[in-house]
Amino acid sequence: MLVEGVSDKVAVETLAVRRGRDLAAEGVCVRPIGGAQAIGRFLNLYGPDGSNVGLAGLCDAGEEGEIRRALERAGFGPDLGRANMERLGFYVCEADLEDELVRSLGAPAVEEILGAHEKLGAFRTYQKQPAHRARTIEAQLRGFLNNWKVQLAAPLVEALDLSRVPRPLDGVLRHV
Predict the structure, then answer these.
(1) Which of 50, 121, 125, 173 is disulfide-compatible with 45, CB 3.0–4.6 A?
(2) Sign of the C-alpha dihedral, residues 31, 34, 35, 40?
(3) In this structure, what are the phi and psi dihedrals at residue 109, rounded to the nearest 5 degrees?
(4) Do 123 and 111 touch, CB atoms closer than 8 A?
(5) How many other CB atoms are found less than 10 A from the CB of residue 175?
(6) pTM of whole model > 0.90?
(7) What is the pLDDT of residue 50?
(8) Domains in the chain, please, with CATH?
């Protein structure tokens, strides 16, 4: 499974554990690729013209076009829309995984997690900054989490109600 970064890897692996899955035993490797711009290299290595292993992936909405074009260039099909990408196992987060987690958990639960990890004071300071004051609390949380996403990915996923897992995270894990 190809994911953009380490926080995505942590989130997928945490959800797998919560669902009683051992990805390593299943032969699934979750590989952070260092950003969507690197996807072509990995598709060349592992796709139809490379070792031809089963692939799946997770990306942010802003990277969807890059991923789609790379899949097309690597021989996964022409004119791929989002539904076709999902059939291939590639899921898109609206706007990113942090946004998906905030929406699934709700702002109060995310604030509780921040408090439990001694980040709530820093979040309150972040909220007071002029650039963030007028934003919704969800947008503030998403922005703040960008600075702490690797450290907080597991606690956020651990707090999810398993019946309310964000669709892209759920989909990519079910695909593998």
Answers:
(1) 50
(2) negative
(3) -65, -40
(4) yes
(5) 19
(6) yes
(7) 86
(8) 2-95+164-175 (3.40.50), 98-159 (no CATH)
Instruction: Calculate ∠ Cα 154-93-165, nearest 5°.
Output: 50
The β-bridge partners of 60 are: 93
CA distance from start to end of the chain: 8
Render pLDDT for 49-77 as a digit per residue (tens, 0 to 9).
888 899 999 999 999 999 999 999 999 99
DSSP per position, the chain: -EESSHHHHHHHHHHHHHTT--TTTTT---EE-SSGGGHHHHHHHHSTTTT-----EEEEGGGHHHHHHHHHHTTS-SS--HHHHHHHTEEEESS-HHHHHHHHH-HHHHHHHHHHTT-HHHHHHHHHSTTTTTS-HHHHHHHHHTTTHHHHHHHHHHHS-TTS--HHHHHHHHH-
Asked whether 98 and 105 are in contact (CB, 8 A), the reply is no
